[in-house]
Give the backbone structure.
Amino acid sequence: MKRSSYAGLPERFYARINPTPVARPRLLKFNQALSAELRLELDEQDADALTGLFSGNVIAPGLEPIAMAYAGHQFGQFVPQLGDGRAILLGEAVDVAGVRRDVQLKGSGRTPYSRGGDGRAALGPVLREYLVSEAMHALRIPTTRALAAVSTGESVFREQGALPGAIVTRVAASLVRVGTFQYFAARNDIDAVRMLADYVIERHYPEIQGVKKPYLELLRAVTGAQASLIAGWMNVGFIHGVMNTDNMTVSGETIDFGPCAFMDSYDPAAVFSSIDRHGRYAFGNQPHAGAWNLARLAETLLSLIDDEAERAVELATEVISDFAGAFAAARLAGLSRKLGLSTREVGDLPLAEELLDIMQRNHADFTLTFRALCDAAETPEADTSLGGLFDNPREYEQWASRWRTRLAREPQAPRERGAAMRCANPGLIPRNHRIEQVIQAAVEADDFAPFHRLSTALSQPYQPLEGFEPYTEPPLPGERVLQTFCGT
Ligand code: AMP
Ligand code: MG
């Protein structure tokens, strides 16, 4: 790991700060595969070194840890100063593909951006972030990763009382957010906005360098990345839960797993986050929230896009309005793969939407339904066993007969189709009740076996490992999770 390139930007972009040492750190999990990908040369056997590094108790020579400044719209309200209140960017690693990746501790102590907070994280949210971010990666959705988790041996105090403290180490293509642009734009610091934009272009979108309107193209690139990301979420039933502008990266990676959740039965109105009282970030609203956030990014770039204000607005508006089309195309591509359609016909989107409607009306499990379709697609004759997932199996069967008629016009052989569909329809997702069980065992009984087991299960979502079948199941009525909490 080396000094972060972000620390080479002017001092007003961040605060220099070291993690606050913790009392009795204990390594809970180290992601050896990710460490190797980052070429960190860490020895899996050297628990002391790993514990020192990932607790923030030991800072490697040459690093210049920083807390990054950012602002953000939180549920529509602009907050001019947020920033890393409990996270510290340790440094950067160049991975095996030559990509620079940020390595950041989260829960590592107070920073100048902590406001009233303690700078710490509770064990539950740390385990959730570790499991869900790694699951997202295994699902092949762009995401920050988890490199390690340690418990601190200290308590943090939250609404529920004293909880065990922990630190998660996350790895990101970069940690620049829409809110980072807003921080400088709100201060009318156009030079800083330009420096930040240049940094992001160089780091994430180098193909834009030297084009005629690089800042407009930056907006277009982020818009495309976010459209495809959000479509990716929705095709696996993911609800981010807190799509504030400070939680939206410009790289197009998923970030912040506070109140996130995966749907069991399909419902576009699904909301799990306890703080999302009006359903602003409900499952089906995610593309709207994304477009809204991109409009906030556009506002920060206007004066760089064109000297003439009206022209800048016109150009930026055009790009933002492309979001809907880009999202729709990415979503349809995903749904087509999920239904086993390798060619495109005009009736495909209505066919997919009809299935979703029927799933919603019949409380069908999103993941199990699509996974069962993979088997059904391999049998040319009607297979009605899937109907059991629907309150009224007839509704499914009527839809399935139309689907089979459509499949008959596909060039793929049934077996080939089934295999392709199993790469688009995970059999195993991080179900909320499983995450809760893991957290409960860890927090209440200091038992991490369920965490390790779930972590293994989630590493193979498209080809569930033998012996992990119970993890594919939806919750029993008594196990259902109704709300998730940020835990901050
Ligand atoms: P989040 O809800 O995680 O996106 O955080 C929103 C803002 O609150 C960010 O600026 C965080 O750094 C800050 N924050 C959240 N939890 C804490 C904490 N325990 N201590 C200090 N700052 C925090
Ligand atoms: Mg955040």
